[in-house]
Design a protein that fits this description.
Number of helices: 3
Strand content: 5-15%
Largest sheet: 3 strands, antiparallel
Number of strands: 3
Radius of gyration: 15 Å
């Protein structure tokens, strides 16, 4: 059976760390003036894929 190809869209969105999969954060690209500093600060912190979705994402990357 041939090797599975990497899903290039997923490869650009997710990064594999030691034991988690890092993902981007929504709501932080524009219209930042109306968002509170506390909210923007929380969005800066790293976000990870939910453990339920990890097997599906691993299959893609």
């Amino acid at each position: 059976m041939p090797k599975m190809k990497t899903h290039k869209g997923a490869a650009k969105r997710f990064k594999k760390t030691k034991n988690k999969i890092k993902r981007g954060s929504a709501f932080r690209s524009h219209i930042l003036t109306k968002k509170s500093p506390k909210r923007k600060r929380r969005l800066r912190s790293p976000h990870y894929v939910n453990k339920v979705d990890v097997p599906r994402v691993k299959e893609l990357i």
